[in-house]
Amino acid sequence: MHTPGPWNVKDEIIRTTIVASDGKAVAMALLPKRGVDEARANAVLIATAPELLEILKDLLTDYEHTCDVLGPLEGLYESPEQEALFARVRAVIAKAIVDSEAEQRIAQ
């Protein structure tokens, strides 16, 4: 299980830190060789990870529900392109969940 969001960005002199709502550091984006702007952009992207994961889960749930309801309409809602896209959504959700569960087992 990952650290619950929201995560925020805290700019410091030699790094940008991503902090959880409890104020504890979750990750750091170091500045050397990357520059301040790129390090901050990386930190902002990392800080949005919990929210992005929840949005993807909600989107997938809504899509699957809609397909279940419209299923009798012979695939009117589903297309190969949509299925490919949602296969990618499922894969990235599984990757995020599996990676965080593995990290939790290692920490115990």
Describe the structure.
By secondary structure, this protein is an alpha+beta fold. It folds into two domains: 8-47, no CATH class; 50-107. The chain is 57% helix and 14% strand. The protein has three helices and three strands. A three-stranded antiparallel sheet has the order 1-2-3, covered by helices on one side. Helix 2 packs across helix 3 (80-107). The longest helix is centred in the last third of the chain and has 28 residues, at 80-107. The radius of gyration is 18 Å and the shape is elongated. The two termini are 12 Å apart.
How do the strands of the widest beta sheet line up side by side? 1-2-3
**Rg value:** 18 Å
Instruction: Report how far apart the termini are.
Output: 12 Å
Write the H/E string, N to C: EEEHHH
User: How many helices in DSSP terms?
Assistant: 3
Number of strands: 3
Globally, the shape reads: elongated
